[in-house]
Structure formats: structure tokens, C-alpha cells
From TrEMBL:
The gene is TMEM186. Belongs to the TMEM186 family. InterPro entries: Tmem186 (IPR026571). It comes from the Eukaryota. It comes from Trichonephila inaurata madagascariensis. GO terms for cellular component: mitochondrial inner membrane. Keywords: Membrane, Mitochondrion, Mitochondrion inner membrane, Transmembrane, Transmembrane helix. Its main location: mitochondrion. This is Transmembrane protein 186. It is a multi-pass membrane protein. Coiled coil: none annotated. It is found in: Mitochondrion inner membrane.
């Protein structure tokens, strides 16, 4: 009886180690695949074989505001304990502490709300020289540029979408994901109309001759 139980426990340990090793191998494979994809995208992004077809000139302002929220957050975090210390030492009234902390928190919240849209705002759209890939550059949470490289066929043409190019902001939709990015034709510049229309369809359908 004791021997049977020992063999059963030993078998369970072996099976557990087997599946654990498989799981670790699977995680490592996924991690390697992600790293390889990131490396390939960086290599493609930096090889210089891209033609800009769209540019939003005010993207730098959006990047500055995106970074400003980080400084505002640091100020808010540092300001609250300082205000409490000053209040405890009789250098500040309770009402003043509440006003200062409330204003700082409100400013911080407002910046986060505004910049949540900026992170989805496209600054540059480029097409590869062989016209098979599209590079979409937009901002990250930290206000830096992030490049997405997708196949041309993945972009939903404006003629197939439910958006109106005459609006201030237009949805940039992809077939492979439900994530939405935005760009603007009112304030952005089309640098190569023929290639832009290759990606997004004929603009004259919407009465645009930009």
C-alpha cells in the first residue's frame, strides 16, 4: 500500500514537472516571438525605405502636452505631503491645503483626459517603396513616437468605413484589430496624394481635392 502511494506521488511530481517545463517553454517562445517582431519592426522602421504620405504638423505640441502630464503628476504627488507638513506646522490653513491639492489634482486629471486622445492621434503615415507596407506613427503614454507597421491590405479605406473625411478627426481603422487611431485632413497635410489614395481610396468621392 505504501509503495503504491509512493509511486503515485512520484508520478504526479513527474507529470507536474513535465507540464511546468512545457509552460515555461511556451512562455519563452511567446516572449521570443514578441521580441523578434519588435526587432523586425524597428529594423523596417529605420531602414529608410519609406515615403511619407501624410503629416500632422502639430503632433509636437501634442507630444509636449503628453509629457507635461508626467511633470504635473510628479508635482501633485510631491505637493500634497508638503502641504500637510506646512499645515501641521501652522504655516498653512486647512482650507488652503484643500484648495491647492484640489487644483493640482484637477489639473492632473484634465491633462490625463486630454492626452488620452493624443495617444491615438497619428502624426505621420508612410508607405514602403514597394507599396506593400504602411507605417503609422503615433504617440505613446510617455509622449514618444511609436511606429506601427502593417500590411497595406489591413487598412480600411475611407470609402469602406462609416466616417466622413470632412470631419475634423477621421478614424483610421484596421481589419486586424478593433483599436482605433485618428488623423485629420483639415489640419494635416497630404504629402503624396496618389499614394495616399492608394491606401485610403479616392478622396474626390467625398468632394475633397486636397
Amino acid at each position: 500500500m505504501f509503495i503504491t502511494r509512493s509511486l503515485g506521488l512520484k508520478s504526479c511530481e513527474i507529470i507536474s514537472k513535465f507540464f511546468k517545463s512545457k509552460k515555461i517553454t511556451s512562455i519563452r517562445c511567446i516572449s521570443c516571438a514578441v521580441q523578434n517582431k519588435t526587432h523586425q519592426e524597428r529594423k523596417l522602421s529605420n531602414n529608410g525605405s519609406w515615403i511619407k504620405i501624410y503629416y500632422f504638423p502639430y503632433i509636437r505640441i501634442a507630444a509636449v502636452l503628453n509629457r507635461l502630464k508626467l511633470y504635473q503628476t510628479a508635482f501633485t504627488v510631491a505637493n500634497f505631503p508638503l502641504s500637510v507638513i506646512m499645515y501641521n506646522n501652522g504655516l498653512m490653513e486647512l482650507q488652503s491645503v484643500q484648495i491647492v491639492s484640489g487644483c493640482a489634482a484637477l489639473a492632473c486629471g484634465t491633462l490625463y483626459f486630454i492626452t488620452s486622445f493624443f495617444r491615438r492621434l497619428v502624426g505621420i503615415i508612410s508607405i514602403s517603396k514597394d507599396q506593400k507596407l504602411i507605417k503609422i506613427s503615433h504617440l505613446t503614454f510617455w509622449g514618444r513616437k511609436r511606429d506601427l507597421i502593417v500590411p497595406l491590405e489591413d487598412i480600411v479605406p475611407l470609402t469602406d468605413g462609416d466616417c466622413n473625411p470632412n470631419e475634423v478627426y477621421i478614424k483610421l481603422l484596421r481589419f486586424s484589430t478593433e483599436d482605433i487611431l485618428y488623423f485629420t485632413l483639415k489640419f494635416g497635410n497630404i504629402l503624396d496624394k496618389s499614394k495616399f489614395e492608394l491606401v485610403f481610396g479616392n478622396l474626390e468621392v467625398f468632394g475633397l481635392k486636397k
